[in-house]
Amino acid sequence: MDKLFRITTLAALLLLGGCAGLIRETPTIGDSAEMVQQKMGAPTAIYGAGNDRIFEYATGPMGQQTWMAHIGADGRLASFEQALTSQKFATIKIDSATKEDVLRAVGRPAETSRVALRNYEVWSYRYKEAGVWNSLMHVHFDEQGVVRQMMNGPDPMYEPKERAGW
Which domain of life is it from (predicted)? Predict the structure, then answer.
């Protein structure tokens, strides 16, 4: 029994040690762009140019969070937010937002696909709708890269196999 306890404890410590690299320090408003990167690591993407830019920290394609660090013209952190929320998706304007607008608002998609009937490119984002439901938001772009439609629904990745028809 004592040997089993030691092996289990060692395994748990190794797992926790492996996860330590995933734990990041949350940046503070006013931190320099360099300090944000020291705390969060290299961004998964950077939008904008010069000092006025957005650092994306995506957890996709399977993750449901994308953190956006907005660096102001002074080169310091102006805001830091989790972008994959119903409220943030609501800021994307149908018939006027472009791919660049969507990237700056919610970051890169988890998946891309096409709807042949309308020749739309679709970007899909995993998120927790209302902080509870495992969902996918689908953003549909026309050939000019303008948002024409948005639809959300349950994320089939989280659906029980019996309900998903598998």
Answer: Bacteria
User: Which domains does the chain carry?
Assistant: 25-82 (no CATH), 83-166 (3.30.1450.10)
pLDDT at 15: 41
36-44 long-range CB contacts below 8 Å, 24 or more apart?
36/69, 36/71, 36/77, 36/80, 40/67, 40/69, 43/69, 44/107, 44/108
Based on the number of CB atoms within 10 Å of its own CB, is 97 exposed (0-12), middle (13-18) or buried (19 or more)? buried
The distance from CA 36 to its chain's CA centroid, rounded to whole angstroms, is 17
Q: Which of 150, 149, 152, 147 is nearest to 129 (CA)?
A: 152
pLDDT exceeds cutoff 80 at 113: yes
Band of the pLDDT at 23, cuts 50, 70, 90? low
